[in-house]
C-alpha cells in the first residue's frame, strides 16, 4: 500500500431536488488498500459509489479516479472492475459467453478459462445464466469484475448468497488481487468481513462521514467489554458492572487489561468460576449500532 490516492473525493454534494443525499463528503482511497465504505440505510453510500464509479454526476464538489474524472470512460473505465449487487446478465447466454462478452467490453485482456477457474465456474462454463443458482450468479458477477486484473475493483455486497467455502475462495482471490497491486473498495452488510479485511473504513450516516479510520481506531471509540456468569450467592464485584437479561454480568471499560486482571484476581481469591467468560475490544457492529444513539 502506498500514499498515492487512487480515489480522491473533495467536498462532494449530491442532491435530488430538495433532498441532499450526500453533504460535503471528502475522503481518499490509497493505492493498494482495501477500503470499506459502510453506512446506515439512506446514508448516501450508494449515491457516493455511483458517482465515484462514473455512473452519476456530482451536484458539486470534485471526484477524481486515477487523477481523472470518473465520467471520462476512455481514461478510467478500462482500469476499474465493478461488481454490482445485480449485473443483469442475459439469461440465454452461457457462463463462458457472459464472461467473454463483459470482459471484452472492459478493454482489458484475459483468458476466459482462467477467470472461470479462479471463481470456480469451470464446470458451469456451458450452462445458461438462467440455470445458475443465486450463489453461482454472484460468482459470475465477481468473474466479470476481476477480468483482466483491474487496478481498482469495486465489490458491492460480494458475498451475498455465497456459502462459507465460496466466501473463503472469494476473499482468497481478493488477496491475490491485492498482491498484484489492485486497490479494493468494499461495501457490505457483513460487518465482520469489513472488520477482518479492511485497512480503513468510512462509516457514513445522513450523507456524510460519521467516522473514518482503521478498525482499531473505530472500535477504540467505545469501551471494551468483559462478560461472565457467576454462581449465587457471590460477593460484591470489584468493578462496576450491569446485569444482562441472560443473567451474566457486563463490565464496560477503557482499561481492559487492568480491569480484567482485577476481576480474575477477585474470582481466584474467592474461589469462583467465571462462567462463559468473554473479554475483548468492542466489535465494529457495536460502533455501527451506536450511530443512532449519538
What does it look like?
With 294 residues, the protein is of the alpha/beta class. Helices cover 32% and strands 28% of the residues. The chain has helices at residues 45-52, 73-76, 95-106, 112-118, 134-146, 164-179, 191-197, 215-219, 256-269, 284-290, and strands at 5-16, 19-30, 34-39, 60-65, 80-83, 152-156, 183-187, 200-205, 208-213, 224-229, 242-243, 249-253, 275-280. The longest helix has 16 residues, at 164-179. InterPro entries: AAA+_ATPase, ABC_transporter-like_ATP-bd, ABC_transporter-like_CS, ABC_transporter_ATP-binding, P-loop_NTPase. One of its GO terms (molecular function) is ATP binding. It comes from Actinophytocola gossypii.
State the main characteristics.
294 residues; alpha/beta; six-stranded mixed β-sheet; four-stranded antiparallel β-sheet; 10 helices; 13 strands; 28% strand
Topology:
Elements: E1 5-16, E2 19-30, E3 34-39, H1 45-52, E4 60-65, H2 73-76, E5 80-83, H3 95-106, H4 112-118, H5 134-146, E6 152-156, H6 164-179, E7 183-187, H7 191-197, E8 200-205, E9 208-213, H8 215-219, E10 224-229, E11 242-243, E12 249-253, H9 256-269, E13 275-280, H10 284-290
Parallel strand pairs: 3-7, 3-8, 5-6, 6-7
Antiparallel strand pairs: 1-2, 1-4, 8-9, 10-12, 10-13, 11-12
